[in-house]
Design a protein that fits this description.
The chain is mainly α. It is built from 14 helices and eight strands. It has helices at residues 2-137, 141-189, 209-215, 220-229, 249-265, 270-299, 306-314, 325-342, 347-356, 371-381, 386-393, 405-418, 425-442, 470-487, and strands spanning 200-204, 232-234, 241-245, 319-320, 323-324, 447-453, 458-464, 495-501. A hairpin with a 6-residue loop joins strand 2 and strand 3 (241-245). Helix 2 packs antiparallel against helix 8 (325-342), helix 5 crosses helix 6 (270-299) and helix 8 (325-342) packs across helix 12. The chain starts with a helix and ends in an 8-residue tail after the last strand.
Length: 509
């Protein structure tokens, strides 16, 4: 029984606790709901205030923008009204001008009609006067006009002939004087140093000990250098100097530069000599091109073909009757420019023709043509203009002159060559004789190089070992000597030395 009571008490306590707990939770939940509702109301009111504020801000911005647009519209309307007023004013001005123009047109039409009427009246009066004159003179108007024209022609012809005779007499009196003035003024305005070419070059050395190294053991070094360059090297008692002798300035320059490099390097032996000589020949070729470019730039001549520039550079190492060819060409070019300017012609074209007039004297290959014709052929080949080609070909009267440039080039070439001391005929003949000696020897099969040395008293001929044997070189030297005797005139005697060399070259790898 007690147990039942205890159990019932427990269940009653649990039910009462459950009811009490539920009642407490219900109050708590109600309080939480009330708090949430109040917070929601606060948030709602806050959101409404923010929205309302934003709305008011937007409304103010919109009203301001609308106000600005309205102001712009008003300004635009004012401008349009002012423009409309201006257009109306212009329209009124145009209408007034149009009215004035119409009035002027009407007045001009009226005047034109009056003039036409007066012209008709004048023509009638002239016709009546002409008829009266014809009746009085017994001649028609056409006959009178013809007689008047003939008399005027005779009078004009007589006066013109008188003027012509006066001009011819004046020209005869002043032409020679004016020509002399132009030539003298041209010469005075162009001054060029006279360059005399000789046949020796002095190579200076620091001390005489170098001479032994240049000669080499049993003279092998100096022989190798002479054979490679085609010059004669004179090593004597002259202190600190070696004489390089050759008629060709290019050979002397190659030898001089090769000696300079060999002495600076310190290695002097035949193989090194040939290597340096070949290298120096390439340097001289580059120097030739650079000289040509520098000459054209100095003279202000542009657009020349590169081959013509190279030929101009070669003139530095050539001479004509003892006169340096490049200096002669530059002097002729300047003279042509000044004289063309004096005569009212194109000085640039004249300078170009003067510079190129002697390019036929430095050919890469022998030609049977005279140098003037060969030069004109070269100029035509490298796209020079026809008047310049004609000036080159005609400066020795070998072709007909077809432009005014030709006589200018001819005269200036003569002026440059006729100056005192400019040329020497003996040197030119000497160089031609040495060239002929080399050409005769080079015409034989198997000959690789020919050098005229000792002022033409010795001709050194180098032959290929694979083409001529030892027995044939004796026959070759005799044939060359016989041909020189038959074809050439020279003082004393000429020694012909034929050199045949066999070389064996191998490489260790």
């Amino acid at each position: 029984m007690i147990a039942l009571i205890i159990i019932a008490s427990i269940f009653f306590g649990m039910g009462f606790g459950y009811y009490f707990f539920r009642l407490v939770l219900k109050k708590k939940y109600k309080r939480m709901i009330d708090n949430a509702s109040r917070e929601a109301e606060v948030i709602k009111e806050k959101q409404l205030l923010e929205v309302k504020e934003k709305f008011l801000n937007k409304k103010a911005e919109l009203e301001a923008e609308v106000g600005q647009r309205n102001q712009k519209i008003l300004q635009t309307e004012n401008r349009l009204k002012q423009r409309e007023l201006g257009l109306n004013q212009r329209q009124e001005d145009l209408n007034r001008r149009k009215q004035e123009i119409d009035n002027q047109h009407n007045r001009l039409v009226s005047k034109e009609q009056n003039l036409t009427r007066r012209e008709e009246e004048l023509e009638k009066l002239q016709l009546k006067e002409r008829e009266k004159l014809e009746e009085l003179s017994g001649l028609s108007a056409d006959e009178a006009r013809t007689r008047l024209v003939e008399s005027l022609k005779d009078e004009a012809r007589t006066q013109a002939q008188g003027y012509i005779n006066e001009m011819m007499d004046d020209a005869r009196l002043t032409a020679t004087k004016e020509a002399k003035r132009i030539v003298i003024q041209t010469i005075q305005r162009v001054a060029t140093e006279t360059a005399i070419e000789n046949s020796v070059t002095i190579f200076h050395i620091d001390n005489d000990e170098v001479k032994g190294r240049i000669i080499g053991r049993e003279g092998r070094n100096i022989r190798a250098l002479e054979a490679a360059t085609g010059v004669e090297i004179v090593v004597d008692d002259t202190p600190e100097a070696i004489v390089i002798s050759a008629f060709d300035p290019v050979r002397r320059e190659v030898c001089r530069l090769a000696l300079h490099q060999l002495i600076a390097d310190g290695r002097i032996h035949p193989a090194r000599i040939e290597e340096v000589v070949n290298k120096v020949k390439k340097q001289v070729e580059d120097e030739v091109i650079e000289t040509g470019k520098r000459t054209t730039i100095d003279l202000g001549i542009h657009g020349l073909h590169p081959e013509l520039v190279r030929i101009i550079g070669k003139m530095k190492y050539r001479s004509s009757y003892g006169q340096n060819l490049l200096q002669h060409a530059r002097e002729t070019a300047n003279l042509c420019s000044v004289m063309a300017a004096e005569l009212g012609l194109n000085p640039k074209k004249a300078k170009r023709a003067g510079l190129l007039h002697d390019i036929g004297k430095v050919p890469d290959e022998e030609s049977e043509l005279p140098h003037a014709l060969y030069g004109a052929k070269l100029a035509e080949k490298y796209k020079e203009k026809a008047d310049i080609c004609n000036a080159i070909g005609a400066h020795h009267d070998e072709v007909e002159m077809t432009s005014l440039l030709a006589p200018i080039v001819q005269v200036c070439d003569a002026i440059s060559g006729a100056r005192p001391g400019a040329r020497r005929e003996i040197v030119e003949a000497y160089i031609k004789r040495l060239n002929d000696l080399e050409q005769i020897a080079a015409s034989y099969d198997g000959v690789t190089k020919t050098y005229a040395i000792q002022a033409g008293r010795e001709l050194r001929v180098i032959v290929g070992a694979d083409k001529i044997d030892d027995r044939q070189i004796e026959t070759l030297s005799a044939d060359i000597a016989r041909r020189i005797q038959d074809e050439m005139t020279y003082p004393g005697q000429v020694k012909i030395t034929v050199i045949r060399e066999t070389r064996s070259v191998s490489y260790a790898k």
